Amino acid sequence: MYECEFYDYCQFVLQVMPLKPHMSKLVQHLYCRINHEKCARYKVGMILGPKEVPNNLSPSDNYLANLLLERAKPTANGCCM
Ligand code: SF4
Questions:
Q1: 73 Cα to the center of ligand 1, angstroms
Q2: 51-72 pLDDT tens trace
């Protein structure tokens, strides 16, 4: 049972995990099953929407997740440019 609501269509699960079965078990254990709130992909998906999560964003790459979230923040005048 996976607690993450993105599991069935997460591109990391669908595209990367089948290529790396050992890493896949670890990621599922560390993130998808019990700790999805800590997953970088989950954070970006929850705030920007699942379609805005880069396919190659690793669940452990919180640095890139934070950059993506920072970049998406609107500026003081309401513009995000
Ligand atoms: S990798 Fe992250 S976003 Fe994808 S299913 Fe697992 S916890 Fe959810």
A1: 23
A2: 999 998 999 999 999 999 999 9
